[in-house]
Amino acid sequence: MVSLLLSSQTKDQITSEAVGKLIQHGLTVTRILQTSEAVIDSMISKVSFHNRKANYLKRVAVVLQEQYDGDIPSTLQELVALPGIGPKMAYLTLDHAWDRTEGIGVDVHVHRISNRLQWVRRPTKEPEDTRRDLQDLIDRDLWREANRLLVGFGQTVCSAVNPKCPECDLRLVCPASTAKRGNKGE
């Protein structure tokens, strides 16, 4: 859950470094409670919005200690009630921490690609609208993989700026493709 919180609008490598520093320091509820917000902030200083996220980490630790005996909540409603935890993070936390797939985690990559491929009923502006449409389209037993596959695809091929349409295997069926024909075996 901490990795997810720190990853928002931050490159994976930066998130990994920050989580590594927290782990070396002692990434437990007790240890976070014992650590000043300023020290936490210095450990995660390379992540986007690090001041806000340091504050969230401290506030989340208080709630986890007081309400969940130091553990993380096991329901969507409880997770999204935590400071800084939105639906995407909650769905992914349920998947990975509790082995329960209750929805598709929709981040900017999943949102962008779903709209480009027109997998949504109408162009969606909000990730939650995209999530609902995707969950109607994709079989539930594939929800867990949807985020991982689409995020990777969005990071490597279907980027926000300058997507690699000529290299994309979906270019012939993608309504947004700028390369409907190419030399990849057509």
Describe the protein in words:
By secondary structure, the protein is an all-alpha fold. The protein folds into two domains: 97 residues, Endonuclease III, domain 1 (Orthogonal Bundle); 60 residues, Endonuclease Iii, domain 2, CATH 1.10.1670.10. The protein contains ten helices and no strands. Helix 4 crosses helix 5 and helix 8 crosses helix 10. The longest helix is centred in the first third of the chain and has 19 residues. It starts with a helix and ends in a 30-residue tail after the last helix.
Short description:
The chain contains ten helices and no strands. With 186 residues, it is an all-alpha fold.
Give the helices and strands, then pairings.
Layout: H1 2-7, H2 12-25, H3 29-34, H4 37-43, H5 50-68, H6 76-80, H7 87-98, H8 108-116, H9 127-137, H10 143-156
Helix pairs in contact: 4-5, 8-9, 8-10
Notable characteristics:
about 55% helix, 10 helices, Endonuclease III, domain 1, Endonuclease Iii, domain 2, 2 domains, mainly alpha, about 190 residues
The percentage of residues in β strands lies in: under 5%
- Stated plainly, the CATH topology of the largest domain is called Endonuclease III, domain 1
Distance from N terminus to C terminus (CA atoms, Å) equals 44 Å
Record field, number of beta strands: 0
Order of helices and strands: HHHHHHHHHH
Number of helices: 10
The main β sheet shows up as:
none
How many structural domains in the coordinates?
Answer: 2
**What structural category do the secondary elements indicate?**
mainly alpha
What's the helical proportion of residues? 55-70%
**Whole-number average pLDDT?**
93
- By CATH reckoning, the class of the largest domain would read Mainly Alpha
The CATH superfamily title of the largest domain: Hypothetical protein, domain 2
